[in-house]
Batch of 2 targets.
Target 1
Amino acid sequence: MFTVFISSTVFDLKDLRNILSDTLTAHDFKTLMSEEGTIPVDSSKHSYQICIEAAKKCDFLIAIIDSRFGGEVPGQKGKSITLAEIEAALDSKKKVFVFVRQSVWDAKETLRGYNIEEFRPSKIVEDVRVFDVIDSIKERTNGNWIFQFTTGTDLLRQVAEQLDFTLRLFDNPAVDQLDRILARDVLKTFSQDLMDTFVNEVQTPLLSIQTADEFSDAVDKFLPQSMRFAGKESSTVFDTFMKNADNLSTEASYLFRPSNIPTKYTSDLPSNRNQCLEHRNQIEKLIELASQTHKSWRDFFDFVRDHWPELIRELHKSF
């Protein structure tokens, strides 16, 4: 039985790590992941050193690079533990496959030539040092091949091709499980109450700061997940909702900012009348966008209901 070490930041990529581990296990590979307790522990050594030694002993190492940099190797400032694991496996002549999320790869290419010191953390890239990890791999004389992936399914397809096993996506319970977990979390966060309250307050228009912040926080949390939905069909439905929700959150926070609301709608000054008219037109467009967002949320809800009716029953019980 071949062993596969899965290297990545952990807490933000639990879904991908779990789906990858489940798939590999189903195809007779043994996976090594720190959070699963499958890496032998030596209490006399630092946890990072244990992981690096495990990376040297595996048959294959699969590394996933996303928006976060993760922990540093003790005593080596600026050296990520993920990069250390990759290098340890390569130097030990192990087969290493590095996967970078397409959005992170695109961000790096887009920012090429710009002053990187002015970089600001975003939903796509939280830590600019992620680019250094990618560069360190690309600059190697061996083991410098990097794959790009978009969704969980895309990642699984490429892993299956490289490790030479047949992946039956639509019959794979692990893929279905990933969709279901994300659907549950999304519907819990974008609850019926939040959606109705937000849309109604926009249409009034009397959007409260509390509602706006709650909706904005939900968007920030789940916008990156639009790239992680495993099934093609669910990804399309979810992505449509998230694009609408992101636009709605951005436009609403701008239009309802106190400094952007005309103070005297009844003013006789032509300039102020024009300002009021423009603001009202923008509000009308925002109301239409709110309706579209609510409809796309309902489409996603209906998709989940049709595919996982037991999940909807569970959600109803929890509210």
Note: The beta strands are 3-7, 30-32, 60-65, 95-101, 146-149.
Target 2
Amino acid sequence: MITDLFVVSSAIDADAIARAIPPACLVESSSPRVTASNGELMLEFPEWRPRAAVRHLLPSLSLLADVPYAVRFELTARAGGQWSPWVATATIGPGTFVNLPTAADGLACDIDVYTSATPIERLRLRVRVGAPDVSALASAPWVATLSACDLDPRVPETAGVPIPRLAVPALSQIDAPPEIALRICSPTSVAMVLAYCGAPESAVTLAADTFHAPTDGYGVWPAAIRAAGRRGIAGYLLRFPDWSSAAWCLGQGLPVIASVSYAAGELTGAPLAETSGHLLVLTGGDGDYVFVNDPVAPTAAEVPRRYRLDEIQRAWLSRSGVGYVLFRPEGIRGG
């Protein structure tokens, strides 16, 4: 499996970003065309060519500005010698944009993830940002990424390199009000990593910031990156191709928020017997096991756990494979 992470940034030192991205995935790109008009900021990126034809695409924008804004990603892809029309994700945050299709010519977007029936040879991304005062956003530091994966079969890794457990504070989502407690694994995981990065925020506050009314959910992945950016912490989304890429992040001191799903009996020792979708924080490993902070544990004391590496690979990498990586940006220029 191959994943390219196309990365473009503004006013953040490129070396600081490179230190947060697995080298096997990083593809740096040239600057976009940036325009502002009618309450919208548009970032238009150059044509990108993945190393291998891809079928899974996941965009994110980390804009380091503590102001409310809406964001939508728009993609056109070349497959079979033809460019598709522009296809849009759901809008994240307060605002609306001009209507665009969510599927065309075999390219489809399910809320925040693009998939293609035909392998994509080239692609172009643009990001539409809306706010009452876009001038404040135009000068803010940002990182935009696009994870592009071929979805070829993954080779499981039978043993991991020992990685000391990162000191990620433990938080239980069950401490939240009962009406949302079982629904906020994503914002609770983000809250744990923000605290680790020195920017603590309550899970309930983050839940309000990441809530996506059209889907009545708290787990839209780019919304988590948006919320962290509003608190000064940069981040990106990646369809991790293998355990080695995750281990690289952990070895760099970067926790990984992993999107897992598993049936009964597939994740030994988990507080949830089974789930079609759950977020937890990977914090280290000791060879055959992975250290995690699982936010759905009933108390904070029970949040730190360890799961078998082979079971994590099945529940995470063989299914969604998606992870959030948050990091404190250094070398901000003009910020």
Note: DSSP finds eight helices and 19 strands in the chain.
